Amino acid sequence: MEKVTLVGAGGKMGFRLTQNLKNSDYEMTYLEISPQGMQKLGEKGITVTRAGDCLPHADIVILAVPDVALSMVSGEMIPMMKSGALVVTLDPAAALAGKLFARDDVAYFITHPAHPSIFNWEPVEEKMKDHFGGIAARQAIVCAIMRGNDADYVRGEKLAKVFYGPVHRSHRITVEQMGLLEPALVETLASTCVYVIRQGLDEVIKRGVPAEAARDFLLGHLRIQMAVLFNELPGAVFSDAANKALQRGLKEFIRDDWKKVFEPENVMDQIKSIT
User: Fold this and answer.
1) How far is 144 from 159, CA to CA, in rounded Å?
2) Are residues 9 and 58 in the same domain?
3) Does 9 share its domain with 107?
4) How many domains is the chain built from?
5) pLDDT tens digits for range 218-257
6) Domain around 105
7) What is the mean pLDDT of the chain?
């Protein structure tokens, strides 16, 4: 039984992991400093441990803290870890920005959830309403080993499948590829596009379209548009009219150089801005 310490166990992300880890086969200890976080853990019957009592004995330490805090927290926690232990972080940004405290005698594993797919049709309502994942709906995850060997990767992936569970697919990629996925693809690009779509919904409502009608019309069209574009309906294509509108939209409000968001220096700028 491996000993795992979860740092930030009562925080936004840490508490989600706690829910899945507290009844797992791992020997768990939990670190939390905020009164609110400690109260949440206490309500679940979880006792917070002192760092000096658990970190030197932990086989794996999960740093479930915000990107902006990882530099400070890793500088406090990683020096206390035993040689051969595994550091796990939940996002690539701090690692790519060089914010993690570095040790040659510990391994570094990074993992991030994909969240349940919009095409993840679940037969049970509880699963359909688990939009974030880690409760009932299945999701994929991505994993990378920043420093370490294949055995370290296997240890990290096994743990990630538990705290992100239920997981139906795990993808091994590099840390740099994870940075292309987040923040570049899903935050800088996709979140912006979706935000603009939501702003468009608000605009047509302001112009007199009944709110419920506008929402139903938009969300239904988003479903079929996504199904066509992501090959969920093999052979399906947009109508000629829809294609003409698409080309007009590309010319009117999409910049020709938008793909620069994926250039290495641009990705690093994005990472620095969030760390």
Assistant:
1) 13
2) yes
3) yes
4) 2
5) 999 999 999 999 999 999 999 999 999 999 999 999 999 9
6) 3-173
7) 95
What residues have CB less than 8 Å from 198, skipping those under 6 apart? none
At 54, which CATH number? 3.40.50.720
Across-strand partners of 89? Answer: 63, 110
Q: Quick one: residue 208, left, alpha or beta (phi over 0 = left, psi -120 to 50 = alpha)? A: left
- Report, as ranges of residue numbers, the positions in the chain whose pLDDT lies below 70: none
123 shares its domain with 188:
no
Which residue is associated with the tokens 């150089």?
Answer: 257
